[in-house]
User: Fold this.
Amino acid sequence: MSTHIAVRDLCLHYGQNCVLKNLSLEIQRNEIFTIIGPANSGKSSFLQTLNRLNELSAEFRKTGSVTLDEEDIDTIDVEQLRARVGIVFALPFPLPLSIFDNISYGPRMHGIRQKTQLADLVERSLREAYLWDEVKDRLHHPAMNLSGGQQQRLCIARVLAGQPEVILFDEPTSGLDPISTARVEETMMVLRDRYTIVLVTNNVAQAARVGMRTAFFLMGEMVEVGDTKDVFTRPSDSRTDEYVTGKFG
Amino acid sequence: MTMNVRTQQRIAVGFLFFCTVLVVLPVLVVLSIITYKGFPALSFDFIFGMPESGMNAGGIFPALLGTIYLVTGAILFAVPLGVMSAVYLVEYSRDNAVSRLVKLAIVNLAGVPSVVYGLFGLGIFVVFLGFGVSILSGSLTLGIMILPVIITASREALESVPQSFRTVSLSLGASRWQTIRHAVLPHALPGILTGTILGLGRAAGETAPILFTVAAFYLPTLPESVFDQTMALPYHLYVISTQVPGVREDFRFGTALVLLLLVLILNLTAIVLRYRFRKKKRW
Assistant:
Protein backbone atom coordinates (compact mmCIF):
# COMPACT_ATOMS: atom_id res chain seq x y z
CA MET A 1 0.00 0.00 0.00
CA SER A 2 1.13 3.51 -0.68
CA THR A 3 0.27 6.82 0.89
CA HIS A 4 -2.43 8.65 -1.04
CA ILE A 5 -3.17 11.59 1.23
CA ALA A 6 -0.68 12.94 3.73
CA VAL A 7 -1.67 15.53 6.31
CA ARG A 8 0.99 17.40 8.24
CA ASP A 9 0.48 19.74 11.21
CA LEU A 10 -2.94 20.77 9.98
CA CYS A 11 -4.79 23.44 12.00
CA LEU A 12 -8.21 24.74 10.97
CA HIS A 13 -9.85 27.93 12.16
CA TYR A 14 -13.19 29.61 11.56
CA GLY A 15 -12.63 33.19 12.63
CA GLN A 16 -11.29 32.98 16.19
CA ASN A 17 -12.54 29.43 16.58
CA CYS A 18 -10.00 26.65 16.31
CA VAL A 19 -11.80 23.54 15.08
CA LEU A 20 -8.82 21.27 14.50
CA LYS A 21 -5.38 21.28 16.12
CA ASN A 22 -2.08 19.90 14.85
CA LEU A 23 -3.37 16.96 12.90
CA SER A 24 -0.92 14.68 11.12
CA LEU A 25 -2.01 11.47 9.48
CA GLU A 26 -1.67 9.43 6.34
CA ILE A 27 -4.42 7.82 4.31
CA GLN A 28 -3.45 4.84 2.16
CA ARG A 29 -4.50 4.16 -1.38
CA ASN A 30 -7.64 1.97 -1.69
CA GLU A 31 -8.49 1.89 1.96
CA ILE A 32 -11.66 2.89 3.74
CA PHE A 33 -10.49 5.33 6.34
CA THR A 34 -13.21 6.13 8.84
CA ILE A 35 -13.35 9.03 11.21
CA ILE A 36 -15.59 8.84 14.26
CA GLY A 37 -16.24 11.33 17.01
CA PRO A 38 -18.99 13.37 18.60
CA ALA A 39 -20.43 16.57 17.12
CA ASN A 40 -18.00 19.52 16.92
CA SER A 41 -14.97 17.28 16.95
CA GLY A 42 -13.72 18.76 13.67
CA LYS A 43 -14.24 15.67 11.53
CA SER A 44 -16.45 17.25 8.85
CA SER A 45 -14.23 20.33 8.72
CA PHE A 46 -11.27 18.06 8.16
CA LEU A 47 -13.08 16.18 5.41
CA GLN A 48 -14.03 19.35 3.57
CA THR A 49 -10.42 20.53 3.75
CA LEU A 50 -9.37 17.62 1.55
CA ASN A 51 -11.13 19.10 -1.50
CA ARG A 52 -10.87 22.70 -0.30
CA LEU A 53 -14.63 23.02 0.03
CA ASN A 54 -14.46 24.94 3.31
CA GLU A 55 -12.63 27.71 1.51
CA LEU A 56 -16.12 28.80 0.47
CA SER A 57 -16.51 30.24 3.94
CA ALA A 58 -14.80 33.62 4.18
CA GLU A 59 -13.90 32.99 7.83
CA PHE A 60 -11.93 29.83 7.15
CA ARG A 61 -8.16 29.72 7.79
CA LYS A 62 -5.77 26.82 7.45
CA THR A 63 -2.17 26.17 8.41
CA GLY A 64 -0.10 23.07 7.78
CA SER A 65 -0.21 21.03 4.61
CA VAL A 66 -2.22 18.37 2.85
CA THR A 67 -0.75 16.48 -0.09
CA LEU A 68 -2.45 14.30 -2.63
CA ASP A 69 0.03 11.96 -4.31
CA GLU A 70 2.78 14.14 -2.85
CA GLU A 71 1.39 17.24 -4.51
CA ASP A 72 0.29 20.06 -2.22
CA ILE A 73 -3.48 20.49 -2.70
CA ASP A 74 -3.11 24.27 -2.62
CA THR A 75 -1.03 24.12 -5.78
CA ILE A 76 -3.58 21.98 -7.64
CA ASP A 77 -6.16 23.86 -9.67
CA VAL A 78 -9.21 23.83 -7.38
CA GLU A 79 -11.65 22.61 -10.07
CA GLN A 80 -9.27 19.74 -10.88
CA LEU A 81 -8.83 18.92 -7.21
CA ARG A 82 -12.59 18.70 -6.63
CA ALA A 83 -12.99 16.37 -9.58
CA ARG A 84 -10.19 14.16 -8.21
CA VAL A 85 -11.52 14.29 -4.65
CA GLY A 86 -15.31 13.91 -4.79
CA ILE A 87 -17.65 14.33 -1.84
CA VAL A 88 -20.98 12.80 -0.84
CA PHE A 89 -22.86 14.94 1.65
CA ALA A 90 -24.99 13.98 4.64
CA LEU A 91 -28.19 14.86 2.83
CA PRO A 92 -28.67 13.85 -0.77
CA PHE A 93 -28.77 17.05 -2.79
CA PRO A 94 -29.85 16.21 -6.31
CA LEU A 95 -29.80 19.23 -8.58
CA PRO A 96 -33.28 20.02 -9.98
CA LEU A 97 -32.40 18.29 -13.23
CA SER A 98 -33.04 14.88 -14.73
CA ILE A 99 -31.17 11.84 -13.46
CA PHE A 100 -29.04 11.88 -16.60
CA ASP A 101 -28.18 15.57 -16.29
CA ASN A 102 -27.32 15.18 -12.61
CA ILE A 103 -24.84 12.39 -13.28
CA SER A 104 -23.31 14.06 -16.30
CA TYR A 105 -23.06 17.47 -14.60
CA GLY A 106 -19.42 17.16 -13.53
CA PRO A 107 -18.13 15.77 -16.84
CA ARG A 108 -20.07 18.42 -18.79
CA MET A 109 -18.52 21.14 -16.66
CA HIS A 110 -15.12 19.67 -17.48
CA GLY A 111 -15.78 20.04 -21.16
CA ILE A 112 -17.09 16.64 -22.28
CA ARG A 113 -19.75 17.39 -24.89
CA GLN A 114 -20.09 14.17 -26.86
CA LYS A 115 -23.49 12.55 -26.26
CA THR A 116 -22.26 8.96 -26.53
CA GLN A 117 -19.36 9.55 -24.20
CA LEU A 118 -21.66 11.13 -21.62
CA ALA A 119 -24.18 8.31 -21.95
CA ASP A 120 -21.41 5.76 -21.34
CA LEU A 121 -20.21 7.64 -18.29
CA VAL A 122 -23.75 7.88 -16.90
CA GLU A 123 -24.41 4.18 -17.36
CA ARG A 124 -21.08 3.13 -15.89
CA SER A 125 -21.44 5.40 -12.87
CA LEU A 126 -24.99 4.28 -12.16
CA ARG A 127 -23.93 0.63 -12.40
CA GLU A 128 -21.04 1.26 -10.02
CA ALA A 129 -23.44 2.85 -7.55
CA TYR A 130 -25.93 -0.04 -7.94
CA LEU A 131 -28.67 2.26 -9.16
CA TRP A 132 -28.72 1.43 -12.87
CA ASP A 133 -31.39 -1.27 -12.76
CA GLU A 134 -33.75 0.91 -10.77
CA VAL A 135 -33.51 4.00 -12.98
CA LYS A 136 -32.43 2.86 -16.44
CA ASP A 137 -35.95 3.35 -17.84
CA ARG A 138 -36.36 6.88 -16.52
CA LEU A 139 -33.02 8.56 -16.95
CA HIS A 140 -34.70 11.70 -18.18
CA HIS A 141 -37.11 11.98 -15.28
CA PRO A 142 -36.41 14.47 -12.49
CA ALA A 143 -33.92 13.20 -9.93
CA MET A 144 -35.99 14.82 -7.19
CA ASN A 145 -38.63 12.11 -7.63
CA LEU A 146 -36.33 9.32 -6.41
CA SER A 147 -36.54 8.00 -2.85
CA GLY A 148 -34.05 9.22 -0.25
CA GLY A 149 -31.85 6.13 -0.51
CA GLN A 150 -31.88 6.24 -4.29
CA GLN A 151 -31.02 9.95 -4.21
CA GLN A 152 -28.00 9.24 -2.04
CA ARG A 153 -26.80 6.55 -4.45
CA LEU A 154 -27.45 9.02 -7.27
CA CYS A 155 -25.12 11.43 -5.49
CA ILE A 156 -22.49 8.68 -5.27
CA ALA A 157 -22.90 7.96 -8.99
CA ARG A 158 -22.60 11.67 -9.71
CA VAL A 159 -19.28 11.79 -7.89
CA LEU A 160 -18.10 8.64 -9.72
CA ALA A 161 -18.89 10.21 -13.09
CA GLY A 162 -16.19 12.79 -12.39
CA GLN A 163 -13.69 9.90 -12.33
CA PRO A 164 -12.24 10.73 -8.93
CA GLU A 165 -9.38 9.05 -7.07
CA VAL A 166 -10.70 9.77 -3.61
CA ILE A 167 -14.30 9.81 -2.41
CA LEU A 168 -15.19 11.63 0.78
CA PHE A 169 -18.35 10.56 2.59
CA ASP A 170 -19.68 13.08 5.10
CA GLU A 171 -22.11 11.07 7.28
CA PRO A 172 -23.72 9.73 4.11
CA THR A 173 -26.39 7.65 5.80
CA SER A 174 -27.50 9.94 8.61
CA GLY A 175 -30.80 10.62 6.84
CA LEU A 176 -31.47 7.10 5.58
CA ASP A 177 -33.41 4.08 6.83
CA PRO A 178 -31.50 0.89 7.77
CA ILE A 179 -32.09 -0.86 4.45
CA SER A 180 -30.92 2.10 2.37
CA THR A 181 -27.98 2.45 4.77
CA ALA A 182 -27.00 -1.16 4.16
CA ARG A 183 -27.07 -0.61 0.39
CA VAL A 184 -24.88 2.48 0.63
CA GLU A 185 -22.44 0.56 2.86
CA GLU A 186 -22.30 -2.33 0.38
CA THR A 187 -21.57 0.16 -2.37
CA MET A 188 -18.69 1.60 -0.36
CA MET A 189 -17.21 -1.85 0.21
CA VAL A 190 -17.12 -2.47 -3.52
CA LEU A 191 -15.84 0.98 -4.43
CA ARG A 192 -12.86 0.45 -2.13
CA ASP A 193 -11.19 -1.64 -4.84
CA ARG A 194 -10.90 1.31 -7.16
CA TYR A 195 -11.00 4.38 -4.96
CA THR A 196 -9.64 5.67 -1.70
CA ILE A 197 -12.51 6.31 0.65
CA VAL A 198 -12.65 8.61 3.64
CA LEU A 199 -15.80 8.17 5.68
CA VAL A 200 -16.90 10.49 8.44
CA THR A 201 -19.68 8.99 10.48
CA ASN A 202 -21.66 9.55 13.66
CA ASN A 203 -22.59 5.93 13.61
CA VAL A 204 -19.90 4.00 15.47
CA ALA A 205 -21.24 0.64 14.33
CA GLN A 206 -20.96 1.75 10.71
CA ALA A 207 -17.29 2.57 11.17
CA ALA A 208 -16.77 -0.89 12.64
CA ARG A 209 -18.60 -2.53 9.72
CA VAL A 210 -16.90 -0.85 6.79
CA GLY A 211 -13.69 0.71 8.13
CA MET A 212 -10.20 -0.64 7.60
CA ARG A 213 -8.53 1.99 9.69
CA THR A 214 -10.30 4.35 12.05
CA ALA A 215 -9.44 7.65 13.66
CA PHE A 216 -11.19 9.01 16.73
CA PHE A 217 -11.55 12.80 16.85
CA LEU A 218 -12.55 14.67 19.98
CA MET A 219 -12.81 18.45 20.36
CA GLY A 220 -10.51 19.20 17.46
CA GLU A 221 -7.87 16.63 18.34
CA MET A 222 -7.17 13.19 17.00
CA VAL A 223 -7.16 11.01 20.08
CA GLU A 224 -6.31 7.76 18.39
CA VAL A 225 -5.77 6.21 14.97
CA GLY A 226 -5.20 2.59 14.01
CA ASP A 227 -6.67 -0.52 12.45
CA THR A 228 -10.41 -0.43 12.91
CA LYS A 229 -10.31 -3.78 14.71
CA ASP A 230 -7.79 -2.48 17.25
CA VAL A 231 -9.56 0.81 17.83
CA PHE A 232 -12.73 -1.02 18.65
CA THR A 233 -11.41 -4.01 20.61
CA ARG A 234 -8.37 -2.68 22.44
CA PRO A 235 -8.19 1.08 22.19
CA SER A 236 -5.08 2.65 23.67
CA ASP A 237 -6.89 5.66 25.06
CA SER A 238 -9.62 5.41 27.68
CA ARG A 239 -11.66 8.17 25.97
CA THR A 240 -11.83 6.09 22.78
CA ASP A 241 -12.96 3.12 24.82
CA GLU A 242 -15.70 5.15 26.45
CA TYR A 243 -16.86 6.57 23.10
CA VAL A 244 -16.98 3.31 21.15
CA THR A 245 -18.74 1.50 23.99
CA GLY A 246 -21.32 4.25 24.15
CA LYS A 247 -20.50 5.80 27.52
CA PHE A 248 -20.59 9.28 25.97
CA GLY A 249 -21.07 10.92 22.61
CA MET B 1 -70.38 42.62 29.60
CA THR B 2 -67.88 40.66 27.58
CA MET B 3 -68.60 39.74 24.02
CA ASN B 4 -68.60 36.08 23.32
CA VAL B 5 -65.74 34.66 21.29
CA ARG B 6 -67.88 33.96 18.28
CA THR B 7 -69.08 37.58 18.05
CA GLN B 8 -65.51 38.86 18.36
CA GLN B 9 -64.50 36.53 15.58
CA ARG B 10 -67.30 37.79 13.32
CA ILE B 11 -66.40 41.41 13.97
CA ALA B 12 -62.72 40.79 13.26
CA VAL B 13 -63.37 38.93 10.01
CA GLY B 14 -65.91 41.54 8.96
CA PHE B 15 -63.49 44.37 9.60
CA LEU B 16 -60.64 42.69 7.71
CA PHE B 17 -62.98 42.02 4.79
CA PHE B 18 -64.07 45.66 4.82
CA CYS B 19 -60.43 46.81 4.65
CA THR B 20 -59.80 44.54 1.66
CA VAL B 21 -62.87 45.93 -0.10
CA LEU B 22 -61.65 49.44 0.64
CA VAL B 23 -58.40 48.64 -1.16
CA VAL B 24 -59.93 46.86 -4.13
CA LEU B 25 -62.91 49.13 -4.69
CA PRO B 26 -61.14 52.28 -5.92
CA VAL B 27 -59.16 50.21 -8.42
CA LEU B 28 -62.34 48.65 -9.74
CA VAL B 29 -64.07 52.03 -9.91
CA VAL B 30 -61.15 53.59 -11.79
CA LEU B 31 -60.99 50.67 -14.19
CA SER B 32 -64.72 50.69 -14.87
CA ILE B 33 -64.90 54.45 -15.41
CA ILE B 34 -61.97 54.36 -17.81
CA THR B 35 -63.42 51.39 -19.65
CA TYR B 36 -66.93 52.85 -19.72
CA LYS B 37 -65.86 56.25 -20.99
CA GLY B 38 -62.95 55.16 -23.12
CA PHE B 39 -64.32 52.07 -24.81
CA PRO B 40 -66.52 53.92 -27.34
CA ALA B 41 -63.42 55.67 -28.70
CA LEU B 42 -61.59 52.41 -29.41
CA SER B 43 -61.46 51.60 -33.07
CA PHE B 44 -58.89 50.53 -35.61
CA ASP B 45 -58.41 54.13 -36.72
CA PHE B 46 -58.01 55.34 -33.14
CA ILE B 47 -55.26 52.84 -32.34
CA PHE B 48 -53.50 52.79 -35.70
CA GLY B 49 -54.22 56.29 -37.00
CA MET B 50 -52.29 59.53 -36.85
CA PRO B 51 -53.69 62.39 -34.78
CA GLU B 52 -55.62 64.95 -36.81
CA SER B 53 -57.21 68.40 -36.35
CA GLY B 54 -55.38 69.39 -33.18
CA MET B 55 -55.57 65.85 -31.75
CA ASN B 56 -59.34 66.08 -31.71
CA ALA B 57 -59.70 63.47 -34.39
CA GLY B 58 -57.72 60.60 -35.86
CA GLY B 59 -55.71 58.30 -33.63
CA ILE B 60 -52.91 57.85 -31.15
CA PHE B 61 -50.63 55.53 -33.06
CA PRO B 62 -47.46 57.67 -32.77
CA ALA B 63 -47.86 57.81 -29.00
CA LEU B 64 -48.55 54.08 -28.72
CA LEU B 65 -45.60 53.19 -30.91
CA GLY B 66 -43.39 55.66 -29.05
CA THR B 67 -44.21 54.06 -25.70
CA ILE B 68 -43.50 50.59 -27.09
CA TYR B 69 -40.12 51.83 -28.38
CA LEU B 70 -39.30 53.46 -25.05
CA VAL B 71 -40.27 50.45 -22.96
CA THR B 72 -38.37 48.08 -25.24
CA GLY B 73 -35.30 50.31 -25.12
CA ALA B 74 -35.47 50.61 -21.33
CA ILE B 75 -35.80 46.83 -20.91
CA LEU B 76 -32.98 46.08 -23.36
CA PHE B 77 -30.74 48.39 -21.40
CA ALA B 78 -31.84 47.70 -17.83
CA VAL B 79 -32.43 43.93 -17.72
CA PRO B 80 -28.96 42.73 -18.79
CA LEU B 81 -27.23 45.41 -16.75
CA GLY B 82 -29.44 44.87 -13.70
CA VAL B 83 -29.21 41.08 -13.75
CA MET B 84 -25.46 41.13 -14.18
CA SER B 85 -24.90 43.54 -11.32
CA ALA B 86 -27.27 41.49 -9.14
CA VAL B 87 -25.21 38.39 -9.96
CA TYR B 88 -22.06 40.22 -8.96
CA LEU B 89 -23.58 41.50 -5.72
CA VAL B 90 -25.01 38.14 -4.67
CA GLU B 91 -22.44 35.69 -5.95
CA TYR B 92 -19.12 37.47 -5.91
CA SER B 93 -18.98 40.53 -3.67
CA ARG B 94 -17.80 39.94 -0.12
CA ASP B 95 -20.08 41.01 2.65
CA ASN B 96 -18.43 44.21 3.88
CA ALA B 97 -19.29 47.83 4.59
CA VAL B 98 -18.91 48.89 0.95
CA SER B 99 -21.10 46.16 -0.50
CA ARG B 100 -23.75 46.79 2.16
CA LEU B 101 -23.69 50.48 1.33
CA VAL B 102 -24.09 49.72 -2.37
CA LYS B 103 -27.05 47.41 -1.69
CA LEU B 104 -28.68 50.01 0.56
CA ALA B 105 -28.17 52.69 -2.07
CA ILE B 106 -29.82 50.52 -4.74
CA VAL B 107 -32.85 49.84 -2.58
CA ASN B 108 -33.19 53.54 -1.85
CA LEU B 109 -32.83 54.51 -5.51
CA ALA B 110 -36.14 52.72 -6.10
CA GLY B 111 -37.78 55.42 -3.98
CA VAL B 112 -36.31 58.42 -5.78
CA PRO B 113 -39.08 60.51 -7.42
CA SER B 114 -39.25 59.93 -11.15
CA VAL B 115 -38.90 63.61 -11.98
CA VAL B 116 -35.40 63.47 -10.48
CA TYR B 117 -34.54 60.74 -12.97
CA GLY B 118 -35.95 62.98 -15.68
CA LEU B 119 -33.62 65.82 -14.73
CA PHE B 120 -30.72 63.40 -14.45
CA GLY B 121 -31.46 62.06 -17.93
CA LEU B 122 -31.66 65.60 -19.30
CA GLY B 123 -28.31 66.45 -17.77
CA ILE B 124 -26.37 63.36 -18.72
CA PHE B 125 -27.90 61.91 -21.89
CA VAL B 126 -29.49 64.87 -23.61
CA VAL B 127 -26.87 67.50 -22.82
CA PHE B 128 -23.62 65.93 -21.66
CA LEU B 129 -23.51 62.91 -23.95
CA GLY B 130 -25.21 64.85 -26.71
CA PHE B 131 -27.93 62.32 -27.56
CA GLY B 132 -30.35 65.23 -27.74
CA VAL B 133 -34.04 64.93 -26.95
CA SER B 134 -34.42 61.46 -28.42
CA ILE B 135 -35.72 57.93 -28.00
CA LEU B 136 -32.21 56.91 -26.94
CA SER B 137 -32.11 59.45 -24.12
CA GLY B 138 -35.63 58.60 -23.01
CA SER B 139 -35.04 54.84 -23.03
CA LEU B 140 -31.82 55.19 -21.06
CA THR B 141 -33.51 57.45 -18.52
CA LEU B 142 -36.40 55.02 -18.07
CA GLY B 143 -33.86 52.20 -17.92
CA ILE B 144 -31.96 53.89 -15.10
CA MET B 145 -35.24 54.48 -13.31
CA ILE B 146 -36.23 50.80 -13.35
CA LEU B 147 -32.71 49.45 -12.66
CA PRO B 148 -33.18 49.42 -8.86
CA VAL B 149 -36.42 47.45 -9.19
CA ILE B 150 -34.78 44.90 -11.46
CA ILE B 151 -31.60 44.61 -9.38
CA THR B 152 -33.54 44.19 -6.15
CA ALA B 153 -35.88 41.56 -7.58
CA SER B 154 -32.98 39.71 -9.22
CA ARG B 155 -31.02 39.74 -5.99
CA GLU B 156 -33.94 38.28 -4.11
CA ALA B 157 -34.42 35.65 -6.80
CA LEU B 158 -30.73 34.68 -6.68
CA GLU B 159 -30.68 34.60 -2.90
CA SER B 160 -33.69 32.29 -2.83
CA VAL B 161 -31.88 29.63 -4.86
CA PRO B 162 -30.88 27.03 -2.25
CA GLN B 163 -27.24 27.28 -1.15
CA SER B 164 -26.93 23.50 -1.60
CA PHE B 165 -27.14 23.89 -5.40
CA ARG B 166 -24.00 26.00 -5.32
CA THR B 167 -22.15 23.73 -2.90
CA VAL B 168 -23.00 20.62 -4.93
CA SER B 169 -22.01 22.23 -8.21
CA LEU B 170 -18.69 23.49 -6.83
CA SER B 171 -18.00 20.15 -5.16
CA LEU B 172 -18.33 18.46 -8.54
CA GLY B 173 -15.51 20.60 -9.84
CA ALA B 174 -17.50 23.30 -11.60
CA SER B 175 -16.01 26.78 -11.57
CA ARG B 176 -17.86 29.62 -9.90
CA TRP B 177 -19.07 31.01 -13.20
CA GLN B 178 -20.24 27.57 -14.38
CA THR B 179 -22.05 27.18 -11.09
CA ILE B 180 -23.83 30.48 -11.56
CA ARG B 181 -24.57 29.79 -15.19
CA HIS B 182 -25.88 26.22 -14.79
CA ALA B 183 -26.96 25.73 -11.18
CA VAL B 184 -28.13 29.18 -10.05
CA LEU B 185 -29.33 31.49 -12.84
CA PRO B 186 -31.83 29.05 -14.45
CA HIS B 187 -33.61 28.73 -11.11
CA ALA B 188 -33.63 32.47 -10.48
CA LEU B 189 -35.21 33.30 -13.85
CA PRO B 190 -38.86 33.34 -12.69
CA GLY B 191 -38.02 35.85 -9.96
CA ILE B 192 -35.98 37.95 -12.37
CA LEU B 193 -38.95 38.00 -14.74
CA THR B 194 -41.16 39.24 -11.92
CA GLY B 195 -38.79 42.15 -11.43
CA THR B 196 -38.89 42.83 -15.13
CA ILE B 197 -42.70 42.86 -15.07
CA LEU B 198 -42.69 45.48 -12.33
CA GLY B 199 -40.13 47.50 -14.27
CA LEU B 200 -42.14 47.27 -17.49
CA GLY B 201 -45.27 48.65 -15.86
CA ARG B 202 -43.40 51.56 -14.36
CA ALA B 203 -41.50 52.39 -17.55
CA ALA B 204 -44.68 52.39 -19.63
CA GLY B 205 -46.63 54.61 -17.28
CA GLU B 206 -44.20 57.28 -16.10
CA THR B 207 -44.43 60.77 -17.53
CA ALA B 208 -41.81 62.78 -15.69
CA PRO B 209 -38.68 60.93 -16.88
CA ILE B 210 -39.65 61.28 -20.54
CA LEU B 211 -40.85 64.86 -20.24
CA PHE B 212 -37.40 66.42 -20.68
CA THR B 213 -35.68 63.62 -22.52
CA VAL B 214 -37.86 62.45 -25.40
CA ALA B 215 -41.54 63.22 -25.37
CA ALA B 216 -42.92 65.43 -28.10
CA PHE B 217 -46.14 67.41 -27.80
CA TYR B 218 -47.16 66.61 -31.34
CA LEU B 219 -45.31 65.09 -34.28
CA PRO B 220 -46.74 64.73 -37.76
CA THR B 221 -44.48 61.78 -38.62
CA LEU B 222 -43.32 58.60 -36.95
CA PRO B 223 -39.77 58.46 -35.55
CA GLU B 224 -37.20 56.97 -37.90
CA SER B 225 -34.18 56.46 -35.68
CA VAL B 226 -33.26 56.30 -32.01
CA PHE B 227 -32.10 59.90 -32.26
CA ASP B 228 -35.60 61.13 -33.11
CA GLN B 229 -38.12 62.48 -30.68
CA THR B 230 -41.33 60.59 -30.25
CA MET B 231 -44.75 61.02 -28.75
CA ALA B 232 -45.57 58.73 -25.82
CA LEU B 233 -48.86 57.58 -24.32
CA PRO B 234 -48.53 58.95 -20.77
CA TYR B 235 -47.36 62.34 -22.01
CA HIS B 236 -49.96 62.40 -24.78
CA LEU B 237 -52.62 61.71 -22.16
CA TYR B 238 -51.33 64.61 -20.10
CA VAL B 239 -51.29 66.89 -23.14
CA ILE B 240 -54.80 66.14 -24.36
CA SER B 241 -56.22 66.22 -20.84
CA THR B 242 -54.70 69.48 -19.63
CA GLN B 243 -52.77 71.31 -22.33
CA VAL B 244 -55.09 71.28 -25.32
CA PRO B 245 -58.55 72.62 -24.51
CA GLY B 246 -61.64 70.83 -25.65
CA VAL B 247 -60.33 67.44 -26.70
CA ARG B 248 -63.19 64.93 -26.84
CA GLU B 249 -63.68 63.11 -23.55
CA ASP B 250 -63.82 59.66 -25.12
CA PHE B 251 -60.41 60.33 -26.73
CA ARG B 252 -58.90 61.13 -23.35
CA PHE B 253 -60.34 58.07 -21.67
CA GLY B 254 -59.63 55.98 -24.74
CA THR B 255 -55.95 56.91 -24.53
CA ALA B 256 -55.88 55.94 -20.85
CA LEU B 257 -57.55 52.65 -21.70
CA VAL B 258 -55.01 51.88 -24.42
CA LEU B 259 -52.18 52.61 -21.99
CA LEU B 260 -53.74 50.26 -19.44
CA LEU B 261 -54.25 47.55 -22.06
CA LEU B 262 -50.66 47.91 -23.24
CA VAL B 263 -49.30 47.41 -19.70
CA LEU B 264 -51.72 44.51 -19.27
CA ILE B 265 -50.50 42.82 -22.45
CA LEU B 266 -46.85 43.34 -21.50
CA ASN B 267 -47.50 41.91 -18.04
CA LEU B 268 -49.46 38.97 -19.40
CA THR B 269 -46.60 38.05 -21.70
CA ALA B 270 -44.18 38.08 -18.79
CA ILE B 271 -46.56 36.11 -16.59
CA VAL B 272 -47.00 33.43 -19.25
CA LEU B 273 -43.22 33.22 -19.66
CA ARG B 274 -42.75 32.93 -15.93
CA TYR B 275 -45.40 30.24 -15.70
CA ARG B 276 -43.65 28.21 -18.37
CA PHE B 277 -40.30 28.50 -16.58
CA ARG B 278 -41.93 27.46 -13.31
CA LYS B 279 -43.45 24.40 -14.89
CA LYS B 280 -40.02 23.32 -16.02
CA LYS B 281 -38.57 23.70 -12.55
CA ARG B 282 -38.91 20.52 -10.59
CA TRP B 283 -37.89 20.62 -6.99
User: Anything to note?
Assistant: The radius of gyration of chain A is 18 Å.
